[in-house]
Amino acid sequence: MKEITISPVTRIEGHAGVKIFLNDQGEVDSAHFQVVELRGFEKFLIGAAIEEAPRITPRICGICPSAHHLAAAKATDQIFGVEPPATGKKLRELLNIGQFVHSHALHFFMLAAPDFILGYDAPVESRNVIGLARQSPELAKKAIAVRKFGQRLTEGVGGKPIHPANAIPGGMSAPLTEGKRAELAGMAKEALEIALEGWDIARTLLDGVDTEIGAVRTGFMGMSKHGLHSTYEGPVAMLGPDGGRIGSFFGEEYPNFIEEYSEDWSYLKFARFKGGDYYRVGPLARLNIVERMGTEHADAALKEYRERFGAVTQAALAYHLARYIEFVASCERAVELLSDPGITASDTRTPVGGVVNRRGVGIIEAPRGTLIHDYTVNEAGIIERCNLIVATCQNNYAIDRGVEDMARRVVENGALTEGAANRIEMIIRAYDPCISCATHAIGRMPLRIECVRRT
């Protein structure tokens, strides 16, 4: 048995592995994307009061805590039978936008861009955000500035910059002050300027790149509202592999349309449509589904994107451009919401009483894709059952198949060079997976790649 291990590899969130099986000729027989960590939130939430779910679940992840916070809050709204007032909904949307700005800027500029700007085969010690900063210091400074806005927006609306706490059953616990609105509005305009400058880089990122590498034929799933890009509310639409619309659903209807399953090589769950078709979520899926982004510059970028890739694309690497278009749209939408005088109104929450419904399902679009929080409680509101379906689980099949496709292209005579390993990792990074749903320090996020010769 021959094993090749690469560790650590940064620029992914969490711990994962790729195992490549070789035949006697040293050719790839099969390859799999593996995650061997266990997420235990579904179990240790049992026994907690449902109103605690929006406070506890942001601890699942330090990169995307706002999405867990809001999905849990939407589920509690259903359990207590309340609808947040308009201002509460606007603040929740703004909170989610803060996460999109922060997360998409982080991934594009710091995790993905080094491969394309510095080169796939650049020395590993420089093919990272530090090397990018050395080569393009102004770009790095702007990336940091726009991420700072995302964090400040999360703090200003959510109460905390990392694990927000202001979304509660019925709405938001605190209004946005006029002083904070004015400060964030100025930062939003600056962030939008940076995003628009960066589009000149993003639009050319895949020039000369074979976008068929790692491509997987799947369906797609994502939220939209009257055909517009939406991250907070609206039906979840489903497309078949040919791009045809096959249905949509709200909340607790999701088990009628999707199912979870497992494979023996990974602890990470998989998901597919009922009937067997695999699907993907996230920026690529959302842009395949929506008719328009709903903002001026993002709509112009979407038109350019579709001229290149078509109305529906299967190209995994197109996730990078789709993600950037969402980044532009998020900055534009932040400017719109923060320019709305009504955003500082005091009616941010509908009062709640006791449990009205024993089950609540909150669905929201996280940066990485559709996020589902499903809770069942007893009469006293104590959680009896919990199921969380995160985006990476839903993209797990496509990542797994994309890894094998790339492995077949780059493994030669049973050998895996450092540059070849990076190309396999590139397919994983295209999905921006949140593998462990936890915060990790730089340099402590290993991805192991093993080549194994079968005997």
TrEMBL record:
Fe cation binds at residues 64, 437. Pfam families: NiFeSe_Hases. SUPFAM superfamilies: HydB/Nqo4-like. It comes from the Archaea. Mg(2+) binds at residues 42, 388, 440. Keywords: Iron, Magnesium, Metal-binding, Nickel, Oxidoreductase. GO terms for molecular function: ferredoxin hydrogenase activity; nickel cation binding. Ni(2+) binds at residues 61, 64, 434. Its cofactor is Fe cation; Ni(2+). Belongs to the [NiFe]/[NiFeSe] hydrogenase large subunit family. This is F420-non-reducing hydrogenase large subunit. The lineage of its organism: Archaea, Methanobacteriati, Methanobacteriota, Stenosarchaea group, Methanomicrobia.
